[in-house]
Amino acid sequence: MRKPLNEQSKRSVIHASSWIICILYFLIVYGLLWWSKVAKEAAIYDATISALSITGITYLVYSSLQYYLPNNKNFWKLFSIAAIFTLISILITRFLIIQFVPEENLLYLTFSLPFRFVINFLIITCVMIINIFWNIQEELLENKKRKDESEKMVRDAELYNLRQQLQPHFLFNSLNSIIALIGSKPTEARNMVFQLSDFLRGTMRKDERQFSNVEDELNHLKLYLDIEKVRFGHRLSTDFDYTEEVLQAKIPVMILQPLVENAIKFGLYNVTDQVLIKIDLTLTENLLTIRISNPFETDQTEQKKGTGFGLSSIQRRLYLLFGRTDLLQTATEDQNFISTLRIPQ
């Protein structure tokens, strides 16, 4: 059975509305009987019994329709239920009044029954409508909550899938490099295996998290760069520029590696000279800005063959995490390819 979103709040509203109806009903009935010149004692008994009767019926309505949501074709049932509850309230009221009020003072009772029925019917119908609207609101909130949870699960699964797709690509490159080094440089191949092991161990620890701080991410990135430097030797050099305040900023895990991997791919492939990759990090107005630049040769045919998976996966991750498509931008400037990543804090 579906539970209300806020049971305590609903109970408070039910109690408050029921006793407000009781007080107002008492005042209205007593005022009408006094205006009709009914004996004071009879008027007090009648007003009290009528008010308590309608209050009890109100509680009964709330209890009976606590989770009821009518279909479009079933609204006629509400009026039938309201009529039944109204008839019950009238019968209870008449029975109790006869027990406490002398018979000579009951001439007005039969005459007033149609009016009592109409008033009680309207009150009970209003209570039922309020109760149903409350249930509809709860159902909408429950559906929204389930939808949000479902979408979050889908986003998390997609984010995990995007991260997992990046790792095999890097792993295959590293294994190929290790194979190439085994024969000519076995010591470097062994060191690269140790570095790869440390890198993958750190990657596994990050699998359960969506965010990390910049310090952890940079340490992990430097493990990756150490492996790549074994592959490319003296041709690869990196320059990090950041201040201490940046280190505790939040950043999606494993989001820097594909950007740097992209810079290495288009900066060193088909190039024999030394290549410097610059990584600048700044934090201003709760916005972490990361700028990665690498030189590239405009006449390289390799530049035209990339699938762009790394950058497109980053765009997709940023959209899933922040709902924005403007957080990653790329540009070329003086034969330098520049990737600019912005992470809201």
Automatic annotation (TrEMBL):
Signal peptide: none annotated. Keywords: Membrane, Transmembrane, Transmembrane helix. It holds the Pfam family His_kinase. GO terms for cellular component: membrane. The chain crosses the membrane at residues 12-36, 42-62, 74-97, 117-136. GO terms for molecular function: phosphorelay sensor kinase activity. Residues 157-236 form the Signal transduction histidine kinase internal region domain. This is ATPase.
